[in-house]
Amino acid sequence: MKTKIGYLGRVEGEGGVEFEIQGGKLRRLKVNIWEPPRFFEGMLVGRRFDEVPDIVARICGICPVSHMVTSIRAIEKAIGLEPNENMLLARKIMSYSQIASSHLVHLVMLALPDYYGKSSFMELLPGEEALFKKFIRLKDVFNDITAAFGGGRALHPVSMVVGGFTALPDEKRIHGLRSGLFAAGEDVMDVFKTVSGFELPDLKTDSEFVALSEEGEYAINKGRISSDMGLDGEEQDYGSLFYEKEVPYSNAKKTAVKGRGSLMVGALSRVSLQSDRLSESARKLALEAGFMPGPGKNKNPFYNIRAQAIEIVHFTGECQALLDIVQSRTAFPKPVPKEGEGSALTEAPRGLLYHSYIIDRRGIVRKANIITPTAHNYLGIEENLRKLIENNMDKPAKHLQLLAEALIRAYDPCFSCSVH
Amino acid sequence: MPFFSGEKRKPRAGFFKFSCCTGCGFELAYFQRSLEDTLKSFDFTFFRLAYSSGALEGPFDLALVEGTVTEPHQAVELKRIRENSAVLYAVGSCAIAGGIPAIKAGGRELEIEKRVYQKKLYRLTSMRPSVLSDYVKVDGCVRGCPPGRRDLEEALVSILLHRRPEFIEYSVCVECKLRGNICLLVDEGLPCMGPVTNAGCGALCPACHRACYSCFGLMSRANIPALKNKFRELGLSGEEIERRFTLFDALRLKK
Fold this sequence. Notes:
The complex is a heterodimer of chains A (420) and B (255). Chain A has one domain (2-419): Cytochrome-c3 Hydrogenase, chain B (Orthogonal Bundle).
């Protein structure tokens, strides 16, 4: 029996999956990411360092903030610029609100129809009208925050530059954003309840959970590399801990942990590795939702959607706290070109994101390297898909196909990012 | 029966993606403010981002297409979409001007590809970037990166009302003046691309004290030499000027 999904729907970008079962055995399986390459690392060479954030934002239409923040941090390291505290706070607000927003669209529009056996959320209307209204309200609350700090739009924000922000919202606006978040509390909880009510398929992954880790806070914009199998290192150690290889049948590359194998990055790894740094309410919900602290726990990739729902709760609280302390003043040191090399890691909505640049004395990029969350997850997606199909061989073909699609979506892959 | 014949049904719409960030798709299916009305007023018979089913073949009353054409198969698909669509709009800077994916047109294709792939270089089919109108007739342009909300609404509403759309065709300076901003180019000597860039963003960058970087692309009757002269007066080198004009419009200036 051959199953082929040429163009997988409800994921970001273009990819498909095919597998063949013969005589009760899975013969062949591949996730083919045919999203066309745009050669970002190739075309960044020759551009000036201060253009980089605007260029790399266009890698992805749902996590541009992550690519901007990661490149900005890498470039600041390369040219030796130390951003001030208020700029770092504003950057956190950008990242946190974007993660909440990205999770929301994934949970409701992309993943949810799988658990109702539908092709689109629109097919659930008018039955799920109430949830739809909440979704619309919530997305505006989160996107308004990113947009206000991003200079007027959440998608490809304009005010966030190397060094800081060219403008920040005034106090009145910040107050408005805070009220919006406060009023959204109940909607956030309802989304969590809906998502945690899904019956998730059984699956146990051997992939190593990898996430950033930072003393005293839930690490997003920077941190040490950590994993549930004892991986530990600084940002600049990235190259010695992971390797990347080309895939003949796919435009995306696969990344693995050196000497071990597949890894999983994203909300599930973060919630598992950093559970003690979640806000109190998010931590309580994580326990209620069956998340166990400690290594080797929660090793079902489908739980990723539950972890995303927990993170929405966490970041709602975090954004509120940051909006209380962030200031409207925008003074920051202007970046000056300088020869150097810098790399940075952040947690994008979908997990670990790596950017690295070599810049010459005139500020021109000489070398760029970008490794995205979906490239980190790619090997694990195929491994676990194989396992899922082998465990469910007795199910009818149609069911198996839906199960396979649901697993890929549970990872919340971004094929545009993975190829870039 | 075509939608325009007066039959009472929702218009059938298709959304298609070529080489890009899918941001236009997300703008339409997520970020914009009239999301509920959009999703309920149209019958999206092909929209991979929001529906896992759907027929690529159409027919469509409205085809919205994002992305730069950088692969041969995309050109073939584009022609098929055109044949099966009553109205086709190019959405976003990639589809209209080449946008960010067209930066590579400024260098040698193989050299750029080699910086990313080694082993599978011979399997790549990527080609010189081109815009939709190089291959098919485009009925309108929803400009921007991401697309401007006013034009996006205009594109949708005009279909619903069976009227000809009017898209914004003037420079960012107009919006900037309407916002009451102080001119960054004249007053502060910042190399602002506003005078040659198509409006639709709401003059976001100048309003946050940043020179416009032309993400909506050059407008059709832009006086490019005049602005280049002004930039030279400000002390920018030829290379620096070139970079500003090739961030989103590398193709237009190569022609």
